Every structure is written in structure tokens, then in C-alpha cells.
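Handout, section B. The chain below has 398 residues.
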Amino acid sequence: MKIYLVGGAVRDKLLGIPCKDKDWVVVGESPESMLAAGFDQVGTEFPVFLHPISKEEYALARTERKSGRGYKGFEVITDKSVSLEDDLSRRDLTINAIAETTEGVIIDPFDGQGDLKRKLLIHISDAFIEDPLRVLRVAKFAARLAPLGFSIANETKSLMQKIAINGELRDLTAERVWQEISDGLNSQRPDVFISVLQTCGALEMILPEIAILFNTPRNLKSKTSTSCGTNTLKSLRRARELGADLPTIFGALLYNVGKHIDTNQKSNLKLIEKITKRLRVPKDCQQVAVLVNAHQKTLLRANTLNAMELLQFIDSLDAKRRPERLEKFFLACRANVIDSVKSSESFLAQTELIQTLVEKINGINWKSVLNDHNERSRAVFISEKKLSIISDHIAQHT
């Protein structure tokens, strides 16, 4: 059985990057011979098998022929005559078309190693344009490898622009688009991911609500104001530098949504709902995005609020039941607002106030103090007790 390690595992090994998943290609075999060798078949669109011991994926070498629109519009050929080079030639980038034998010999028919040295992301052939998903994948690789100095070849950028223009990006399923977006936002440089999509015109196809921000000034009164899109890129980079997770970064991404038409909070929240429904975004990401858009402005003036306003704000954050979500909210807001030492100090003062009040409220043993109250009076007592805690804190610090 001719087995080769392929794709990302070989690329990352050559770059000295840890790789969690390994993909293998098998040449000269059939589904029947793989099953006879003890492999379990899991692929439906094309034959993929799980190794009986390691459970790693082994795919039969295959070629693809364009037969329709979208990334599923391909006829797959997996007979025994398909060679390793045939299989590698269907891949997107030269750096992803490198194979390694079980003895450690590198097979590199498209000079992927040379492009690794040149730090260049370049397509293998013009067949690149046949799969619209490749636009998102290249943006993802650009974001992942940006810290190493990689850039996209101009000729590859040109093909990405053609894909954006031909409209096939609209044929991608919501689930697949979100998978690539989440991978891109989770990369080392989420700002590069969004920037690449914007530059080639793909962002307008998949996230038009973000794309339009690049034509929206932050300050409508200033002719030299940077765009809301540029500001969003800065927020994404800061969020990653602060160690933010996916829901937090997604919250930073959507903070400026709606500013091209209105600053009305309800309008912005409707746009967020539209985006998250269209892309089938997970609930945790959606919730942080809503919190940031609805409450960041209030957080930034927390020390000007009276006791009742602070109570209403803290209750709206659901801080007692969702402390981990509160931390994501703080981090996303921090990524959005820190432009200077002065703004950093101001922000930290506001968050410290809210965190202190939340800790004091959560520190009450509510079970012991509520024994003498019925259900209706408990709600009133809890609200009054919280208000008293907040009022006392304000009195002590003014």
C-alpha cells in the first residue's frame, strides 16, 4: 500500500509549526481493498477511511473535474490509475501540495518548498478559480502565516478577485462559510483575514455589513477620519494580542456594524441578528456580539451613572449567571477602545468599578438572607439589597 502524508501536516512540519491533524493519501487502492485491510469508510462524497488503530484519515488519491457551480460542483475520480502528482495538482496552493513518504522522503512537484522559502502563497494552476471556497481558504492561510511574513502572490489575488466577481461565493453553504470565518478569526492575525477578503471583493459577498464599513468614516465631521472598517481591523488585531477567544473576537468584529446608516442601537442589533442567522453563528458568539453592541457605550461612562443606573446595567449583563461571558464582554470592549494610555486608564477604571460591584453583589449569601421572604417579596428585597450595596460603594468612593 502506497501511503503519503500530505497537505498541511507536511507544510507545517517544514515550517517548524506544530500540527494537530495528519492527512494521508493512498495511491493504487480501491474502497474494497481499504475495507479488506481493516479501514473504516467515513466519506460519502469521496472515499475517506479511518485507520483501524490511529483513527487518522486516509483518502484515496483523486482528481476532480468541474461539473457545476459552487465548491460542490465537481465530479470526483478515484480509480487506481490516479497518481500522487494527479492528486497534488488539484490542491489550492503550492505549499499545500507537498507530500512525504513513510520513509521521510519529500515529494514536491510544484516547488512548494521554494514558495515556503519565498514566503509566498501562490496557486498551482488556473483551475484554482473553479472552487470559490479557495478565496476563504487563502485568506485564512494569509492570516495564519502572516506572523511568518507570508503574502499572497499578485496573480493569485487576481484569481481571487475573479471568483468574487463571478458570484459563486453565494453558492457556498452557511455552515461552510462560518467554518472558514471562524478559523480565520481564530488565527494569529484575524485582521489580515478580513483585510484580504475586503481587498479581493469577497467580503461584500459574505459579510456586506462589514465591507461597507470601509467606506464609512469614523467621524462624519472630519474629512481625514479613518474608516470604521480600518478601526475594526485594529480592534481585531488588539483582541488577538489580548488573548481573546472566538466569541470575543466576533464581538469586536461586529461592534461597528450599522454605523453606515444609523447609530441607533436597535437598528444595529437587528443587523447583528440578521448576520448571525444568515451564517448560523453559534449562540456564544452571537451573545457576546449583542452585549458589546448594546452595552459598550454604557460601560465607558460607568463612573457617571447613579446607583439605580448601575444596578440596571449590571442586571442587563447577567453577570451572576454568566461570569465568563462578562469577561469576554470586557475584553472585546477593551480591544475596541484602547487607542492611547489615557483611554486605557479610563477604560480600566470603568471595568474595575463594574467588576468590584459584581463581586460585592455575588458575595452575598442570598439563600441565608432570603429565608424570611416569600417569592414576591424576595425579588423586591434582592433589588433593594443590590441597590444598597451599590449606593454604599459610591458613597465610600466619592
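Note. The chain has a mean pLDDT of 90. Compare this with the example in section A.
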